[in-house]
Amino acid sequence: MATDAGTATAPIPRFPDGFLWGVSTSAHQIEGAADEREPSVWDVFTAEPGRVKDGSTAAVACDHYHRHREDVALLADLGVDAYRFSVSWPRVNSPGGLDFYDRLVDELCAAGVRPVPTLFHWDLPARLDWLERDTASRFAEYVALVAARLGDRVTKWITLNEPAEHTLLGHALGVHAPGRKLLFDALPVAHHQLLAHGLAVRALRAAGAADIGIANSHGPTWPASPETADVEAADFFDVLLNRMFAEPVLLGRYPEGIGELLPGDVEADLKIIAEPLDWYGINYYAPARVGAPQGEGTEFGGMTMPAELPFSLRAIEDRPVTDFGWPVVPEALTELLTGFRDRYGDRLPPVVITENGCSYEGLDDQDRIAYLDGHVRALHRAVEAGVDVRGYFVWSLLDNFEWAEGYARRFGLVHVDFGNPATLERTPKASYHWFREMLRAQR
C-alpha cells in the first residue's frame, strides 16, 4: 500500500476476522472544560510552578468537551472499529457530567464506532487519595453510576489505566500528580488501585456488563550485562513494573516478598483483585535495560533517579529513538507477548494492545508511520506464534496535553494547533492517512 505522503511499504499481513482496530485518548489530556467539573489531582499539580516543563495546564487542552463532534467525525473518516476514551471521575461528580459521556457514546454509536471507556486514567478527584483504602470503594460507587448510565450502549469496558505508572511517577518519584516522593512507601497506592479494579469488575458485572479488561503497561526487562548484580537488578525491576501488576490480576497473588509490604487483609483483597476478566489489556512502548545501582544523581529519560533505588535504568544503544528519547524496538512487543503466554499459560485471557504509539513532530510524520508499521508487524508475529491477541489501539488520536511534558510532545495521528487556541485546528497527519489505508486493506 502507499500512504498519502507517498511512502510505499509492503502490505501488512492480515489479522484474524473480528480483530478490533482502534485509537485511544484520555479525558484529562484532551477534554479541557476544566471549569465545568470538580478539580482533579492533576489540576492541583499543574497549578504549582515548575511541575510542567512548559508551564502549561490542561484547562483547555484540545477542547474535546466542546469539539467532540468534530473528533467523532475524524474517527469515522479514519475507519476505526473502536474508540478508547476515558471517563473523567471529577466530571461525573459534577452536575451534568454524565450527560457529556451520554452524548459522546450516542455519537460514536451513530458513526459506527464502538465506545470503549476507561474508567480511571490518572485524574483522581482532588479530594481523594489512593493512599486511603476507602478510595477503592468510592471508585466502585462511581463505576456503578457510569455503568447504569452508559451500559445499554457500551459493550466493552476498561477499569484502570497503567496503575504502575500512576504509582511510580505520581507517588514514588513525584514527577506526576500528586507529586509525592514516597519511593517504596508508595506500595499501598498500587494495592488500593488494584483493589479498586477488582471492585469495579464486580460493580460492572452487577450492572450486567460484560467484556471487561484492564490496561496495564508492560515491557520486557533486559539486564545491562550477564553480571549477577545486573541480572538481579533487572529481575527486581521486572517484579516492580510487570509482575506486581499482572500477577494479582491473573494469578490472585503477589510476587514473593511483596504481599507482606502491603496494608490490610491482603489475601482477602486478592480474591477481589483476581475477579475473572474477559481480556487483558497491555500498553506497550519500549523495553527497559536495567542494571545495578550507579550512585547519586543518575539521569535517565530526563529524570534524576534516586540513589536509594536498587536498580538503574540504562540506555538501549544502537536503536532509533522517538522525540521523547524512547528506543524503538518493535520486536520486543513480540517478545513481551510470547513471554506472557509462556509465563501465565491458560491464566492469560485474550490480549488487547490498549496503547502503542510514539512522539514525533511534523505533519509528514514518516517516523511515526515506520514505528506503527513495525509494531503492527511485530504484533502479527505474536499472533502467528499462537498468542491470542484480539485488538490494537494506537496512542493517540490527537496531539494532547502530555502530562508533565505539557504540549512539548506530540503523539497524535491528528495535529492540533495549540498555538491558536481560538480554533485548535485539527489536521490529519501522514500517519492518519497511512493507518486509514492499512485498515481498509485489512477488510
TrEMBL record:
Active-site residues from the entry: E162, E355
UniProt keywords, alphabetically: Carbohydrate metabolism, Cellulose degradation, Glycosidase, Hydrolase, Polysaccharide degradation
PROSITE patterns: GLYCOSYL_HYDROL_F1_2 (PS00653)
Origin superkingdom: Bacteria
Keyword Aminoacyl-tRNA synthetase in annotation: no
Catalytic activity entry: Hydrolysis of terminal, non-reducing beta-D-glucosyl residues with release of beta-D-glucose
Matches recorded under SUPFAM superfamilies: (Trans)glycosidases (SSF51445)
GO MF term list: beta-glucosidase activity
Sequence intervals crossing the membrane: none
Binding site for substrate: Q29, H121, N161, Y285, W395, E402, W403
EC number: 3.2.1.21
Enzyme class: hydrolase
A biological-process GO annotation: cellulose catabolic process
GO CC annotation terms, alphabetical: cytosol
Pfam families in UniProt: Glyco_hydro_1 (PF00232)
Record-stated family: Belongs to the glycosyl hydrolase 1 family.
Protein name (record): Beta-glucosidase
